[in-house]
C-alpha cells in the first residue's frame, strides 16, 4: 500500500487584508469538515497590498476617509462597506476594530512568516499577526512589535532580530510575489490547491470544502477514494 498523499494548499494573502483574515477562518471551517484534513499542508505566501507603504504610517487621516479616497467612493459608502465586513467577520468569531488600525508596511512581517515556516509555526504566526493588526491595533510594521509577536508563538527573540536586521528571506518574499504575477493573481486571498486548482477570494466554507474534495480527488490514489476499502488481499 502506498503512503498517504499530502494535499498542499498555497495561500497568497497579506496581513493587512481583512478579507484574508475572513478567508483564513473559512478555510479552517472547511478543513474541520474535510475527512482528510490530517493530510493537508498549508503554506502561507506573501502578497503586499501596498508595497510602498511606510514601515509605520504617520497619517492622521481617519481610516474611513483613506478608504473613500482610495476607492473613489463617499464616506457613507465606505462606512456601509466597512459595517458589512465587520458583520461578516463577527459571524466567524473575528473582531475587526478599524478605529484602532495602525497601517504600515508588511514586508518584514512576510519575511518572518518564512522564518516561521522553517520552524513549523507559520500558521500560528499568521494568526497572531492578523489578530494583532485587526483587533489590537498593533503596528505590525514596527520591528519591536514584530519581535514581541513572534516570540509569543515560539520563535527566539535573537533569531527574529537577526532576520529583521538583515535581508534574510527578502528573496523568498519577492519570489512569492513574482509567482503570484505569473499565476495572474491580482487580489487576495487566493488559494491554490494541489498546485492546480485556484480559488479566488474569501469564499464561504462550503465552497472551499467542495474545492478541497475536488483537489483531493486529483491527487489521491484509488485506495484513498471515497468508498474504497482494504482487506487481507490488498485495497480495492
Could you give the topology of this structure?
Blueprint: E1 7-13, H1 18-32, E2 40-46, H2 63-71, H3 75-91, H4 107-118, H5 122-134, H6 143-152, H7 157-164, H8 170-182, E3 190-193, E4 197-200, H9 205-219, E5 230-231, E6 234-235
Parallel strand pairs: 1-2
Antiparallel strand pairs: 1-3, 3-4, 5-6
Helix pairs in contact: 1-9, 2-3, 4-5, 5-6, 6-7
Please give the CATH architecture of the domain at 1-47 and 185-236. 3-Layer(aba) Sandwich
**Gyration radius, rounded:** 20 Å
Strand order of the largest sheet: 2-1-3-4
Q: What name is given to the CATH topology of the domain at 1-47 and 185-236? A: Glutaredoxin
Structure write-up:
The protein has about 240 residues and is α+β, with helices and mostly antiparallel strands. It has a domain at about 1-45 and about 185-235: Glutaredoxin (3-Layer(aba) Sandwich), CATH 3.40.30. Helices cover about 45% and strands about 10% of the residues. The strands form 2 sheets. A 4-stranded mixed sheet has the order 2-1-3-4. A two-stranded antiparallel ribbon has the order 5-6. The N and C termini lie close together (about 10 Å). The model is unreliable at about 220-235 (pLDDT under 50).
Brief summary:
The protein has helices spanning 18-32, 63-71, 75-91, 107-118, 122-134, 143-152, 157-164, 170-182, 205-219; strands at residues 7-13, 40-46, 190-193, 197-200, 230-231, 234-235. The protein has 236 residues and is an alpha+beta fold.
Provide key terms for this protein.
single chain; 236 residues; alpha+beta; Glutaredoxin; four-stranded mixed beta sheet; two-stranded antiparallel sheet; 11% strand; globular; disordered C terminus
Amino acid at each position: 500500500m502506498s503512503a498517504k498523499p499530502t494535499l498542499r494548499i498555497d495561500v497568497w494573502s497579506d496581513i493587512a487584508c481583512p478579507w484574508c483574515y475572513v478567508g483564513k477562518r473559512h478555510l479552517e471551517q472547511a478543513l474541520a469538515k474535510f475527512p482528510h484534513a490530517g493530510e493537508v499542508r498549508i503554506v502561507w505566501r506573501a502578497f503586499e497590498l501596498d508595497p510602498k507603504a511606510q514601515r509605520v504610517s504617520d497619517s492622521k487621516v481617519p481610516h474611513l476617509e483613506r478608504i473613500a479616497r482610495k476607492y473613489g467612493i463617499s464616506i457613507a459608502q465606505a462606512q456601509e462597506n466597512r459595517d458589512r465586513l465587520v458583520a461578516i467577520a463577527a459571524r466567524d468569531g473575528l473582531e475587526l476594530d478599524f478605529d484602532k488600525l495602525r497601517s504600515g508596511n508588511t514586508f518584514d512581517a512576510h519575511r518572518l512568516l518564512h522564518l516561521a515556516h522553517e520552524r513549523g509555526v507559520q500558521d500560528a504566526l499568521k494568526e497572531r499577526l492578523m489578530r494583532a493588526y485587526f483587533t489590537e491595533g498593533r503596528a505590525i510594521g514596527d520591528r519591536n512589535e514584530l519581535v514581541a509577536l513572534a516570540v509569543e508563538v515560539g520563535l527566539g527573540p535573537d533569531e527574529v532580530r537577526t532576520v529583521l536586521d538583515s535581508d534574510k528571506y527578502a528573496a523568498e518574499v519577492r519570489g512569492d510575489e513574482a509567482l503570484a504575477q505569473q499565476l495572474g493573481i491580482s487580489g487576495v486571498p487566493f488559494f491554490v490547491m494541489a498546485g492546480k486548482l485556484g480559488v479566488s477570494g474569501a469564499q464561504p466554507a462550503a465552497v472551499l470544502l467542495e474545492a478541497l474534495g475536488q483537489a483531493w480527488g486529483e491527487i489521491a490514489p484509488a485506495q484513498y477514494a471515497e468508498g474504497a476499502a482494504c482487506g487481507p488481499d490488498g485495497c480495492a
